[in-house]
Amino acid sequence: MRITNKNQTYLYLKNLEEIQNRRFQENLRLSTGKHILNISDEPSRFVKVKQISNLILKNEQYKSNMDEALSELRVTNDYLHNFGDMILDIRNLAIESTATGNSANMFTLSKFVKGLLEDSIKLANKDYNGRFLFSGTKTTPESLDKTDPSQNDFPIELIEGTPDAENPSGLSVIFKGNNKARIINKDPHSVEQINVLAEEVFGNGGVGIFQDVIKLYNIMAYNKDGIPRKLGDKLDSEDIKIIDKAQRRLAEIYDEVSNITSQNGSRIIRLETISGQISEENVRLKELRSLDEDTDVAHSTIKLLQEETALKYSLQVGANLLPRSLFDFLGR
Amino acid sequence: MADFSSLEISKRALLVQRMGLNLTSNNIANVNTPNYSRRDAVLQETTPQLNSGAFMGTGVLIDKLRSYRDEFFDKEIRVNISRTAGFEADEKLIKRIESLLAEPTDIGLNELVAKFFNSFEELSLKPDNVANRQNVLSSAKLLIDRLHSTHSQLNDFRETLLGDTSQKIEEANKLIQNIVALNKNIANSKAIGGVESQTYVDQRAEMLERLSSLFNITVTYENNGTSNVFINGMNIITGTNYNSLKLLVDVNALNGEKTARIVKMDNKNNIIGAINPHNGEVASLLKGYNVILDERDTTNGFSIIKSLNEFAANLVQKVNTLTINGFGLDDIGPTPPGRNFFEPIVGQVTAGNIRLSADIENNPRNIPISDSPMEPGNNAIALLIAKLSNDNSFLAGQTPGNYVTGVLGQLGNIGYEAISGRRISGLISEQLISQRESIIGVNLDEEAVNLIKFQKAFEAAARVVNTTNELLATVINLGR
Predict the structure, then answer these.
(1) First-to-last C-alpha distance (Å) of chain A
(2) What is the spatial distance between Cα A175 and Cα A158, in angstroms, rounded to a whole number?
(3) Chain A contacts of B376, Cβ < 8 Å?
(4) A199, A269, B415, B452: which is deepest, by most CB within 10 A?
(5) Half-sphere exposure of A52 toward its Cβ, with a 13 Å CA cutoff?
(6) What is the DSSP string of A282-323?
């Protein structure tokens, strides 16, 4: 092939441009750490990376939600344990009240029962980060059904009403929340309930347990004629039967609360397991993404060295060969 | 007689070698001139004369000046230049769009879409939390801002393309006029000297190549040396006559779609036909304006703005359908207040006009994510909105994230095809140009040899004149 001057310069410049371009690309890959510099470099790889990124972002959100929900469920679990303990304490007081020699202390024991009732209601009104735990989807004070005789901003309220023969203390408990589940997505296809319903844990209408305790309190604190027991007032056999029935009911309630606590514990375990799985999945997804997204430093470094060597020699060739022609040697 | 014939022969030799030196000088002078084809003189011995019973040579003459231009290469190179220029323009167009979309980055549209749906996922955990509601608004605003800026930048870029196309048409018209002027010069030179002036032919070849980078052209030649030029079969130059090109923008009365087209004009500025280039820079610019960046495109081609508009319209429709039945934190019911999350736009929702409804934007407590009144912990609608991110029927049988990624991928594929096409046709062009150059190009070593060759021949001829002169002097002095 006949080689002309333009042949040499044209091809030389084209090749030099190519080498410089490739060197620049490898330089960019090393400085940014990214393999894909433009979508059009490798669109299929770009799409794959973005799809994996979407999965990672979604998983991170699920995990963040679950971790937050786990904190709430753990707090709920603590309160359920405490609540169960209080029920046991009340039951023990009931049993103690029927023990020989203790019936004279009924006044004092009834005060303890009332104190525990009030404490258990306080526990039932607990919140987590400003959200009531046992009031369903009515999680804020403003959302509660505060119709008469409600007087406070808590979902469960102990009302001191007018005493009557049935209820000599006049005490009653009202529930101002609802029994709706709060749900979160734990992955694209499954959900998990993150609250414990008042009806499940506190019985009928969200107040069943408290009403039972009030009945117990009424027996312990009042005589049959509705007059408060005085120090030394003893229980009769009928009272003892009612208290015994109440303590058995409290034992059942304790079992129910324990059952709910363990159900809540199962939720915690499920969420912990899935959260762990998501963490592992994200590690794998990030590795997978990295394979396509990130620069293979060793590969890029070698390629950069190759291109730099090519550029160096190309420039040397350009410097040495291009200006040489027969004219350089004529007339010497 | 014989002595004088030597002088005559030497004179011819001197003239011929001098011409050879001139040609060599011209070749050397044009060693870097684009599209210059080297020339040389075809020497021929002059008619012999019978002298003393034998035919004696009478010297040398230049039979013709030879140019090495080869129309086969010219034609193939023009075809490849047109393709390469088209692919290069496509590549530039796509890379520009990529930079406007801020892709590939970690803060691209894809990530903002994911962030938008994730904010609802986060809100579903604490639906009563105003900070989380504010976060939903922030992520929605970020997405909306990105859609707005992308929409406006892409539309601005589209207008830039129109300006670029107009400039290219102006450039094409100048090239057409130059080619016609060169056609005239070539025809004149042939009429006067019987042969075409190679200088004009080379200049015309250069103009034709420049024109072929703008359009896919076909060239035919007439006997008088003039050329005819066709763009995609439409005649633009016929010898010394030509038609100007003009860029027109038509507006569709029904949908307001603006379409750019190229027409050819007669000398009274009347439109006499449409030009539909399918290769070259102008074809690429028109594709960019009429399809890729046309939000009202009706060609069923891939339009990035149209795709983003469809995404925005779907997002508004799907989210509003859910929120319309929802309750905000302060809604007491019993019937839903009928709040849209996004403002329902009269006409078509686009990436350029999507916005939050004022009710929502002014008060995050109004975001209707509960399906019952006065239930701040109710997240039923937030969960449904968050689940849209996994909805395979969101748009075109894909989830929102996959749709956006798919659109970007589709754009990338056009760029990838352009890069591949540019590489292949560029390589073919390089080879063809290199092969042609090896035939028509100037080799300085060759020319140096020619220079010496003609110089030595000239010196020898001069020596013959000198010797003949001395001989004649001897003859003249014989009688003294």
Answers:
(1) 29
(2) 9
(3) 137-140, 142-143
(4) B415
(5) 18
(6) HHHHHHHHHHHHB--HHHHHHHHHHHHHHHHHHHHHHHHHTT
**Considering only CB atoms, which chain B residues are within 8 Å of A326?**
444-445, 448-449
> Side chain identity at A132, as an amino acid letter?
F
CB contact B415 to A (< 8 Å): yes
Parallel/antiparallel/unpaired status of strands B54-56 and B234-238: unpaired
A190/B contact by beta carbon, under 8 A:
no
pLDDT at A155 over 90: yes
Which residues lie below 8 Å from residue B331, measured CB to CB, with a gap of 6+?
B337, B366, B368, B373, B374
Q: Give the separation between CA A252 and CA A246, rounded to whole angstroms.
A: 10
Does the beta carbon of B391 lie under 8 angstroms from any beta carbon of chain A?
no
In degrees rounded to 5, what are phi and psi of residue A130?
A: 85, 0
- Of the listed ranges A56-60, B61-65, B80-84, B248-252, the one predicted with least confidence: B61-65
Once rounded to an integer, what is the mean pLDDT over residues B149-162?
96
d(CA B106, CA A121): 50
Interface test with A, best of B122, B126, B451 (most A CBs within 10 A): B126
The mean per-residue pLDDT over the stretch A57-82 comes to 94
Q: For the residues of A268-279, what is the DSSP string, one character each?
A: HHHHHHHHHHHH
| Phi-psi domain of B237 (left: phi exceeds 0; alpha: psi -120 through 50; beta: other) | beta
A27-55: pLDDT as tens digits: 999 999 999 888 998 999 999 999 999 99
For residue B401, the chain A residues in CB contact (below 8 A) are 50-51, 54
> Distance between CA A200 and CA A258 in Å, rounded?
11
Q: How far is CA B38 from CA A306, B32, B321, B456, B458, in A?
A: 38, 11, 75, 22, 22
- Cα(B243)–Cα(B266) distance, integer angstroms: 6
- CA atoms in the 13 A half-sphere facing the CB of B245: 32
Task: Measure the CA–CA gap between B280 and B260, rounded to whole angstroms.
Answer: 16
What is the nearest CA distance from A82 to chain B, expressed in angstroms? 24
Single-letter residue type at B356: L
H helical segments located in chain A? 5-32, 43-98, 106-124, 198-202, 208-221, 237-293, 297-321, 326-329
Identify the sign of the CA torsion B211, B213, B216, B217.
positive
How many residues comprise chain B? 480
* Of the candidate ranges A1-10, B178-187, B275-284, the one whose mean pLDDT is the lowest: A1-10
Tally Cβ neighbours within 10 Å of residue A64.
16
CA distance B441 to B58: 34
Q: Is B61 exposed, middle or buried (0-12, 13-18, 19+ CB in 10 A)?
A: middle
Amino acid type, A95:
I
ipTM for the assembly = 0.87
Per-residue confidence band for B1, with pLDDT thresholds at 50, 70 and 90: very low
d(CA B203, CA B239): 16
C-beta atoms of B128 and A130 within 8 A: yes
Whole-number Å distance between alpha carbons of B228 and B238? 5
pLDDT band at A332 (very low <50, low <70, confident <90, very high): low
Tokens of B268: 């009274």
Using alpha carbons, list the distances in angstroms from residue B41 to B21, B23, B38, B65, B199.
Answer: 10, 8, 10, 5, 15
Q: Any chain A CB within 8 A of the CB of B107?
A: no
Radius of gyration of chain B (CA): 37
Mean pLDDT value across chain B: 93
